[in-house]
Design a protein that fits this description.
The protein is an alpha/beta fold. It is 43% helix and 11% strand. It is globular. It comes from Paracoccus tibetensis.
């Protein structure tokens, strides 16, 4: 029998939204680095952003600032705070991956959607408005006081919706930000959207789809 969750929760940036931190970094630094050096810079920037959210909560502008500063130091490039500010200000302008609106809208007709997002309250409405589907609940890291992969972010979702892990199907393209923590908290129904961010890891128990066009089928739609 197909599982029918009370809620379909999902990661926003990277999974649904085309989170173009790589493009933003290239715009500012490609003329200072070799192609190989640029790819290393992008990987470093991603790694430092993850490390920054593992600490106590701070505004996402500080996450970007600190991660970029550390990346520049590692790559022997001068750090300019104005570049970090520009990259942060681009976030609300980014829209969905092309496969998202149709697939998400199909699911939204049958299940309430929950965005569990490492976002700030002032920025995320701009991204949500571009998804092309009604989102019943938007739960941010700012409101939770914690970024994923902290358990507190997921616990905030459980408490806010008065539900437990058994009531959710959680959808993400990231093991490190979402699916590992979801597994540890007992969310047994998970979908990994394989966008090439990370390698497969079957230990964590999920249904794999290539993009959001496959999500309705997972739910028997």
């Amino acid at each position: 029998m197909t599982f029918r969750p009370k809620f379909v929760s999902f990661d926003c940036h990277g999974t649904m939204i085309y989170f173009d931190m790589a493009g933003a970094a290239r715009d500012h630094y490609a003329d200072q680095l070799s192609p190989e050096g640029m790819e290393a810079f992008i990987e470093n920037f991603s790694a430092y952003r993850l490390d920054e959210v593992l600490h106590d909560f701070k505004p996402y502008a500080e996450v970007v600032h600190n991660a970029l500063q550390r990346t520049c130091k590692r790559n022997n490039i001068a750090f300019d705070p104005a570049v970090a500010e520009d990259i942060y200000n681009r976030v609300p302008t980014w829209g969905p991956n092309p496969d998202v609106p149709a697939g998400l809208a199909r699911v939204a007709k049958e299940f309430p959607l929950v965005a569990l997002t490492n976002s700030m309250n002032a920025q995320i409405p701009h991204n949500i408005a571009k998804l092309g589907a009604p989102i019943a609940h938007v739960l941010t890291a700012e409101s939770a006081g914690a970024y994923k992969p902290h358990m507190r972010a997921f616990e905030y979702m459980f408490d806010t919706l008065n539900c437990g892990p058994e009531d959710f199907l959680h959808v993400s393209s990231s093991f490190r930000y979402d699916l590992m923590t979801a597994h540890d908290l007992g969310i047994t129904n998970k979908v990994w959207v394989n966008r090439g961010h990370e390698p497969a890891n079957p230990y964590y128990g999920y249904t794999e789809i290539a993009d959001i066009s496959g999500l309705p089928g997972v739910l028997g739609l």
